[in-house]
Amino acid sequence: MIMTVESSGLVDQITKSDHAVGIGDKVIAKKRCVKKKARLQLKRPAVRHQAAAAAAAVVSTTLQKVFDSCRRVFKGAAAVPCAADVQNLCRILDGMIPEDVGLSKDLQFFKPKTEAEGTPRVTSATIYKGNNFELCIFFLPASAVIPLHNHPEMTVFSKLLLGTMHIKSYDWVDPLNSDFLISPSKSRLAKLKANRIFTAPCDTSVLYPTSGGNIHEFTAITPCAFLDVIGPPYSKDDGRDCSYYKETPCINLLDREEIEEYKADGSCYRWLEEIETPKESEMDGIEYMGPKIIDSTA
Ligand SMILES: [Fe+2]
Fold it and tell me: Any transmembrane segments, and where (predicted)?
């Protein structure tokens, strides 16, 4: 599959391997994206953009500020950033422009008439990944979907850089031990937190381990790019694997006496049932070739 993000040539490595985890009496088979050689052929930028791209590749003050802030904000597993740190990082991200990561609305990929061949696939480029946080850009062709997935024990800052996308997000209602909130199919009750369209430029959104829409789904309306700041990163070894879900309405649930208190607030609730990793979640990876960051602690 060839993705036409104009940039200096990039390399993609993705492969899949399977493993299984048990949930109650169910077994959910998961596919993980890990390294497979698949070179992407990317167009070079037009001449008038090359100078800007070359300059941008040298340094981005804003990207460096994001990185330096992340160094201070993310203190490791189970450490949720304090409100002041969140506010500070949001302020920096709010001021970010596509050029800070080597992108431009003029790139062919972001042209509205660009049509993907076959099922549109998401592409990602990791700017940085350490033990405490990760910076990653996701590219979605129009109509591409990142299916409903969670972020266990994570705080995630998402900054839409280009395009228009629909975001739907949920938070778990329960403490895990609330039996009445577990349906016979082992679904869990979730409360809708966001269900709206975002167009860049827009403010940064933040999700937390138990609030802010920890489980979310992205659907690109136009070609999009967004930056995710994820702390800590996914790590299966540390119990932070990514799970995917399908949602079902709570028609029967709303008849249940126990949840009258939830009905009363007028919010939207859904059952979320964990599913096998959906095919649409498979991504292509490309090497990040934009402005560099300097890790002064390395
Ligand atoms: Fe996500």
Answer: none
